[in-house]
Amino acid sequence: MTDKQAVTLSINGDCHDVLADPRRTLLQVLREQLSLTGTKCGCNNGVCGSCTVLIDDLPMRACLTLAVAATDREITTIEGLETGGELHPVQQAFIEYQGMQCGFCTPGMVIAAKALLDRNPDPTLDEIRDELSGNLCRCTGYVKIADAVLSLVDADRGQN
Length: 160
What we know:
Blueprint: E1 5-11, E2 14-20, H1 26-33, E3 52-55, E4 58-61, E5 74-76, H2 89-96, H3 106-119, H4 125-132, H5 143-157
Helix pairs in contact: 2-5
């Protein structure tokens, strides 16, 4: 049996001290120890993107990241996007453009879209599709998801 290690994780602006088996993934610690269940466990192999979180503002798969490797890094989960009771613009756009159906992929999609818009506030539709291609959705067909993200680009251009 592996001894647990003390790990300090900075998640959504708050520090969390946890004891974690060094083999535990960030996804496991988020969901099972910190009750941050917005990050979903889909494939547990890094393929589906439902566990996408931001680590130092980069989209990463929480199921492939060991919790101990996330020490001294800034982690943002879907729970950390709303501010003062207000949804993040990406979250609001997903609602307005009906960019979700079952909702299982939605947290990872929203996080990936936010990362794209932070890095490139004026992406083309092809760039949006390419960026979100690593996040699988079985329900929507992706059109409304891309429309939601594109609406934020058009709004910034003053066209919406």
